[in-house]
Every structure is written in structure tokens, then in C-alpha cells.
Amino acid sequence: MSTSIQTLRWVPESGQPEQLFVLLHGVGANAADMGPLAEHLRREFPQAAVLAFDGFEPFDGLPAAQVGGARQWFSIQGQTDATRVARLEPVLPTLQAAVQAAQQAVGLGQQATCLVGFSQGAILALELAQRYDGLVGRVLAFAGRYATLPEAAPKQTTLHFFHGGLDPVIEVQHAREAMQRLADVQGDATIDIAEDAGHEINGALLMRAVFRLRNHIPHRSWRAALGQAPDMPSQGLEALD
């Protein structure tokens, strides 16, 4: 794994950043592929700083001469549910350190930070939030899944799942199962499904992501306002036409 982390940065045109988005691409892509998503977030949240990391390894799904800028967070060659967990292990501490360095660089704390992952990047974002509860305030997981369903929910991080109903790469059932588990363990989570979408971030899901960011009040904020009342249940399914 490379120790040099390549990063693309977008910052507000003026003034100090008020939010930090950290974007994690899918397997075989790179930070530059997250550019359109970064620009959309900047339009919706002009005072946000947006960072996109390159995956830590060259993509090994192509002959070396064809790799170019393709990256991965971990190899999917011969991957099974068991090996996925093991392959994540060395990545998580490095990514945690990178996120913390980004927070320090822009002068923002954990609760002002949102991890946004697509596919393999979403897997990594979910596992990072599970391992280091409170490292970020929110996770937007597009077309992702847990490596293994959690036994307990993070208490300081809100999780938002976005999935295509026709996703042939990571089936939508993984998102539904994650949502059910998080409801069982009183996690703070939402789910939006675009029934006609595949393995993608389409316009409908992106609109819902912005809606969730603007309108979902984290349960920890409710608990603080109500004097540490009991945990509220996760929000239910939202299906999009």
C-alpha cells in the first residue's frame, strides 16, 4: 500500500469552510472521477471544502500497461466475504489518519465532516465509521455495503444509504439488510432506493442525498435537546420512482 496519498481539493471561493466532504471513489476509478460529484456538492454547499483521495493501490484488474490512473482501495481479485474483511484491515488506519489530517488542514471537527463513498469507497466509508465512531458526523454510502453487518451501531455518526434497485454489482438487498440491522441496534440511518437505477449515482439519488444533508437531524442532536432521552429508531425506507 502506498503511503503517499494523492488528493484533489476544492475550497470555498471566499471565507472559511463550514463543512468538509471527503470523497472515496469506486474500484478502478480515481479521485478525478469524483470531480462532477464534488462540483455538485460545491454548488449546493458553497462554504464546504471537498477532498477526494486516490485509492491507495494501483488497480490490479487490468494488465499493468493499461492501468493508467485506475486505483483501488483493496484488491477484489478472488474476493469472498471472508477475504473482504481481511483486505480492509490495513486500509482503515491509513484512511483514518488521512481524514484526520484533512480535518486539521481545513480547521473543522469531526461532526462537520461527511464521508461520501461510491461502491468500494462506500464499503470503506461504512467500515471506517464503524471502526472509528465519531471520526465523521455523516456517511453517504452510494451503491455500497458492509463487509460484515455490525453488531452495534455507531453512536456519533449518521449513516445514509443510497442504492439502485437494479444494481447488478452490489445488490440492493445488502442495503436493505444493513438498514434492518441498524434499526435493530438503534442506529441513526436512512435509506433511499431508486428502483430503476443500476450501479451508479443517478440524479434522483443525488437529490435525495442533498435532501438528507439539509433536513435529517441526527438522533444524537435530538437526544441532547431532550436531555438524553432513549435512542430513536432508524428511519424507514424511501423508494424513488
Automatic annotation (TrEMBL):
InterPro entries, per database record: AB_hydrolase_fold (IPR029058), LYPA1-2/EST-like (IPR050565), PLipase/COase/thioEstase (IPR003140)
**Domain of life here?**
Bacteria
SUPFAM superfamilies reported for this sequence: alpha/beta-Hydrolases
Record-annotated Phospholipase/carboxylesterase/thioesterase domain positions:
14-210
Keywords from the UniProt entry: Hydrolase
Q: What family does this belong to?
A: Belongs to the AB hydrolase superfamily. AB hydrolase 2 family.
Its protein name is Esterase
